[in-house]
Design a protein that fits this description.
Length: 568
């Protein structure tokens, strides 16, 4: 439920705070006092559209904060979105919205920056708002269908998913048929190119190894000549490096006894002689194993030429040919699948079967729920001045699969006994429309109280066009709803206000050239005076005051009323 609503510099409100209690609360006041401004502010905090016009004149920004009990159904969403509770173990949810004088909007959830879309997602778990024109949404097919589906407890996400698969499968088949000739030509071209590369069969790491071996074979004689020269200079020729190094070590060794410093030089010369011997041994082995191989060189020339020719033809570096081969193989598989009409047809058949199965289950649930909703709303209409009226939920075949199923939903109403139910949009009386919308709102709200329903119901002048005994019934209905959920109602009806558990008075005052709204809870004589004003105008008479006291007394002793406190 809503625990606190704070406004600052919003429209004509400088600063205002509302802490609504559980049960049924009403907001009343003169026309233009700002009753609906509170609802507008709450809708803004819940992700509604806002612009610079909501900023109070002369202020830098408008701020709205709303604090709710945290519904369990919202916890997984908060965790996934990364909105942690500010106070560990807290069971409260904090929403904040700021719009500055330039129209820039910012939002927060539990102190973390949020998007307006995220505010709207949270709002679905927090508040149900029924406005004075609620009946208008009941003439729109999508809204009507959503209402019936909620009544039936339907989750349409599996159906929407199968519909998307069915749609995609049909599109793929149609595209393949339309592009069959072009796809086949593309497939043939790609298969021929891939065949060329397959004949070469380039290995993933082959090019570097091939290039190195080709270079070695191409320069085999030069390598042999250089190795022979090096071997001769190291150990075979007269005055070779090995011999000269040995002679130098012997000369020093003969006089080393006279100066110890020469010992380190002799060690270095001995090491050098050993390394020269190792080098001579390695060079001899190299010459033994290495000799020109014309046949191997010819094969390497052909292989390198083939690599370079394909690389030039397809404008790639030689080392990229293996990756190009893999890419073309994947593309060919895709084209094979796209040109396999039989396979695409099988996919479409399977997708159609999956969609049909889901759609049948949805249709069955709707057909089961439709008469139940019809009977429940019909019953709710009877005390609302529509005795013998009848409400029907009609299912119409859409003629083609849709993401929501194979039927649309329409609400039909017969306002009087013997009349034929007609589409709600064609019911002429505005008062009748409001009463029907109220009956539907009460029925669906009662139904969802045990489900993942919003904890707060708001009725914004939904009782417009209603009066007399019907108004008393409306007040009792709202109070009954307040036993299960928090109910806030903006009303002009004294009978509805008298039925409330809590009564808040919204007033406005002009200070200089500035008009501002304020809010306070009223009880006792102040409440009697406000209800009397609602009955008889700005200056309540003794008659209107007595009538107000009578309404409060009747509401207080109503056997259907919950335990109430703080009333006159």
């Amino acid at each position: 439920m809503l625990r606190r609503l704070c406004l600052r510099d919003f429209v004509i409100v400088r600063e205002l705070e509302l802490e609504p209690c559980a049960g049924f609360s009403v907001l009343t006041g003169e026309t233009g006092a700002g009753k609906s401004i509170l609802i507008d502010a709450l809708q803004l905090a819940l992700g509604g559209r806002g612009d610079v016009g909501v900023v109070r004149e002369g202020a830098a920004r408008a701020e709205i904060g709303a604090e709710f009990d945290l519904p369990p159904s919202l916890v997984p969403w908060l965790d996934e979105a990364g909105f942690e509770c500010q106070d560990p173990g807290s069971e409260r949810l904090m929403l904040r919205r700021v719009i500055d004088a330039q129209g820039k909007s910012r939002a927060w959830i539990n102190g973390g920056m949020a998007t307006v879309t995220q505010l709207r997602d949270a709002a679905d778990h927090l508040v149900d708002i029924h406005g004075q024109h609620a009946w208008q949404s009941l003439t729109r097919s999508a809204s009507v269908r959503a209402l019936l589906d909620a009544y039936a407890g339907l989750d349409l996400s599996p159906l929407a998913q199968t519909w998307s698969c069915w749609k995609a499968a049909g599109q793929a088949l149609n595209d393949a048929r339309a592009r069959q000739v072009g796809l086949e030509r593309e497939r043939e071209r790609l298969a021929w190119q891939l065949g060329e590369v397959d004949r070469l069969a380039p290995g993933d790491d082959e090019w570097n190894t091939l290039n190195a071996e080709h270079s070695r074979q191409s320069n085999a004689q030069a390598l042999i000549d250089a190795a022979r020269t090096a071997l001769s200079l190291v150990s075979e020729a007269d005055a070779s490096a090995e011999e000269l190094t040995g002679r130098a070590a012997d000369a020093l060794r003969a006089v080393a006894a006279h100066d110890a410093q020469l010992g380190s030089v002799i060690s270095v010369l001995n090491d050098a002689q050993a390394q020269l011997q190792d080098a001579a041994h390695t060079l001899a082995g190299y010459l033994h194993r290495t000799e020109p191989d014309p046949e191997q060189l010819r094969k390497l020339d052909e292989r390198v030429s083939a690599w370079l020719a394909l690389a030039r033809r397809y404008h790639r570096a030689p080392s990229e040919l293996p990756a190009l081969r893999a890419q073309w193989r994947d593309e060919l598989k895709t084209l094979d699948a796209a040109t396999d009409l039989a396979a695409l047809e099988r996919v479409l058949i399977e997708a159609t079967a999956s969609y049909t199965a889901e759609a049948k289950m949805v249709t069955k649930a709707r057909r089961r729920a439709a008469p139940q909703l019809s009977a429940a709303v019909t019953q709710a209409m009877q005390p609302l001045g529509m005795a013998a009226g009848r409400f029907e939920v009609a299912l119409r075949d859409t003629g083609a699969p849709q993401s929501f199923g194979v039927e649309s939903v329409e609400f039909l109403v017969a306002g009087h006994k013997g009349s034929t139910p007609r589409p709600l949009a064609k019911v002429a009386s505005g008062g009748e429309l409001s009463r029907i919308a109220l009956a539907i709102a009460v029925t669906t709200s009662q139904l969802t109280k045990g489900q993942d329903a919003a904890g707060t119901l708001i009725f914004d002048e939904i009782d417009a066009g209603i009066g007399g005994a019907v108004a008393e019934v409306v007040g009792r209905l709202m109070r009954q709803l307040g036993q299960e959920r928090q109910v806030l109602a903006v009303t002009h009806l004294a009978q509805v206000a008298a039925s409330a558990d809590h009564h808040y008075l919204v007033s406005k005052a002009t200070r200089g050239a500035v008009t501002m709204s304020s809010l306070r809870e009223v009880g006792g004589e102040a409440r009697v005076a406000e209800i009397a004003r609602m009955l008889g105008g700005d200056r309540p008479s003794g008659t209107s005051l007595a009538h107000a006291q009578e309404l409060l007394a009747i509401a207080a002793v109503d056997p259907q009323s919950p335990r109430r406190e703080g009333h006159a």
